[in-house]
Queue: 3 jobs
Job 1
Amino acid sequence: MRERIVVIDDESNIVWLFREIFGDAYEVLGAETAEDGLQAVWDQEVHLVMLDLRLPGMNGLQALEKLKLQGYQGPVIIMTAYGEVKTAVQAMKFGAYDYITKPFDIEELKHVVQGALRYSRLTSEVTRLRRELEEKFHLKNIITVSPKMIELFSVIERVSTSDVCVLIQGESGTGKEIVAKAIHYASARKDKPFVPVNCAALPEHLLESELFGYEAGAFSGARKTKPGKFELARGGTVFLDEVGELPLPMQPKILRVLEENQIDRLGGTKRLPIDVRVVAATNKDLREEVRKGRFRQDLYFRLAVFPITIPPLRERKEDIPVLAKHFLKEFAEERKATPLTIDDEAMDSLLSYPWPGNVRELKNIMQQLCLLCDGPVVRKQDLPAFFSNSQWSSHDNNLPEGCAEGMPGINPEELLEGESGLGLTELKKRAWARVEKQLICDALKRFEGNRTLTAEYLGVSRRTLYTKLREYGIE
Ligand SMILES: Nc1ncnc2c1ncn2[C@@H]1O[C@H](COP(=O)(O)OP(=O)(O)OP(=O)(O)O)[C@@H](O)[C@H]1O
Ligand SMILES: [Mg+2]
């Protein structure tokens, strides 16, 4: 479709001129009065409006206001006689894109018109992408049939519309980030940026400049002023991911920002007001971190105005089949293929596996199956070898309800290691650590020691993998 320009001018030779110059490339519609012009913009999609200031009846400035009121978001260029430049400048304050004086310099006219159309293309592209993001991260795209999750979402939906701080807790891969995005895109801030900050990824001094920005000359190397994430998110949402990793000295600084809604750029002399909503996530038990003195209580209370916990996948097994189906369909669509299906025996294996990497791990496995599976149906033997591990294979279906958590084969005596009275919580922790260690070792073997592939496969960051390797003394 050709782009459309509406020229509102009572001098017919102006419209004629536009047709002469632009008629080949664009569709040019003329209107002799503001009223006719507004009607034309209302009736069809218009990419640029050229507006004369002096018109019979409604004048240009009034027409500009009406254009905005009737929802036109494209550029408006004011055409003005030499003596009226002041009014044209005023029009720009009311949202006109630019102005040009009559009589026209043809080259200048071409330049301004083409620039405005480029701007119009970009803004409609931004609007389209925004709509797409909004659609993509809508709560409805978070797949679940679990009553616990559905209840959680009804709460999230309500909290999205307010500005309260939300703290999302959950194991790695449970979906904390997509929930954070869904909160943002369901809020009134959805047209403003969603800015994620990974608090674990940067050392303390870099994190500070990343969050608060710096002025030129704040330190050697700071040649230009750089805005921080809190500034970049203006009007939107800052997502403090892995907030449990926030270095202690940074914590009072974040608290201050949240309390005062102002930031100090490094090396800056005045405080800058900010308008952001903060959503934070962690896979740690933050209250426990507070108890251990690793996280400030005041910041915890400030962040956890509204705490939510996403249950791990093994506690909502009913989600495994629907998520598996969803991912198989998604990957098949990408490859323009028919989605794989999963036979009963393979599904039993998926259901009894403990999924330490949660939904991310399930997603990765489904992606592998799409690439590696020979037939249209996934059978048990198509699953990675560790699914056949008798430790959590289907015999746990015979166990009483609640015992089928993928932990069989672990002997409590062995876990106690001579200490007695450890209690279930500690025993569980130790048992879990064993399973985790085993999974990591298996994966490392599978990828011949390649850490990147192993981390990717397990659905954790390389940093997490390294921490785990250290924790379990794996070389
Ligand atoms: N309920 C769900 N429906 C659809 N996709 C999901 C769901 N939960 C998680 N996912 C997908 O699983 C992957 C992991 O989710 P996400 O990154 O949100 O997890 P996370 O909790 O932030 O993990 P981490 O703690 O490792 O950062 C993403 O690709 C996400 O889109
Ligand atoms: Mg995450």
Note: Residues 393-409 have pLDDT under 50 and may be disordered.
Job 2
Amino acid sequence: MIVNANAHPNDAILGKEIADLGLASYIDDLDTNGFTVIPPAIANPNYLTERMLSICQDIAEERNGNRPDLEAGRTRQDTPVGDTLKALLLEDPVFEEALMNPALLAASTHLCGYDVVLSSLAAFFKGPETTPFFLHTDTRLPSPQPKQPLLCKCIYALTDFNRETGSTAFVPGSHKWARNPEPHENQIEGNRDAVPVYAPAGSLIVFHGSTWHGAYSRQVPGIRASVHLLMVRSILRVTEDFIGRVPQEALDRNSARFAILTQQGVVPGYIDKQDEVEKVMRAMKHVSAFEQESGVSLPMKR
Ligand SMILES: [Fe+2]
């Protein structure tokens, strides 16, 4: 029997989660290609994406005064990402479900560990446009980048993603190069290395933070809708600050992992020793609760 001296006890727990969810081949995709498409049968329990789409349309209407028309609507054309709805987690419990989706958690954990936290949760509505979305990585470091992922992106396709609807483009295997594309490499149109992702509504697209990606322009009428979760290792600075902002009822109705995912186990910057002690004690309460609940060990203790 070969014993892997580098194996961590968390690996066995995650391996069981992946097997139980039927995710093994999608995790292989992630390792080989740097991205995967988890199909609706696994990624979309209880019509999650249909409910998210309806709620995102409600929020857009409330915030912007008009409801996105998925069949014939248009969005901003001066950006390839269209219209965005930022900071959605605390808007409706459906986004807690999106974060706690076991398939999303298993894939994110495979890439970034059990200490992974949510950095941002936003919706995107993308209508017809011709603005190129150049290839880039989401790991905002100069080349060379670390081989080990620091972050990953999870995208729920709320409508169909394909070449004509303006899907994400990926360069398969580019995460292994651990570098950013050079300017002469970052075009999508006509790039033989870039491929469109095909993901029917209800799918979950997951990719490694160093995978080269961009997006095709939408060529057909109507709007492509998606919800994006940026997941990062707990040591990184986050985009949205959730520490101390998550209502107690949201913490109560979810497992202890939800607190970890919403940064409650992270010790924020302190101003003096007493402040440090208070912040560490608060964070460690959540870390210990999750460790007891799951059997995993987290690297957050300092
Ligand atoms: Fe990106």
Note: Residues 45 and 101 are 8 Å apart (CA to CA).
Job 3
Amino acid sequence: MGIKMEKRRTTDRRGWLMMPLRANVPDPGDGTWQLASCPECGRECWSRQLPEGFTEEMFEGRLCTMCALKAALW
Ligand SMILES: [Zn+2]
């Protein structure tokens, strides 16, 4: 599919899946991105497909980039 993703160990279960804000990225980089809303702030953002071998259970959840950054600071 040609999606570039950072390498991540499959044993790593922490962290949030980041969804780029639509305000920052008006046009999705590829057709697999789906419009979603951040569960934290409700802003429109893009939900991206997980890389092969990863499941949602490996993460704490999905957040927009802003909320993910905030969550990382706490
Ligand atoms: Zn948010």
Note: The first helix runs from residue 65 to 73.
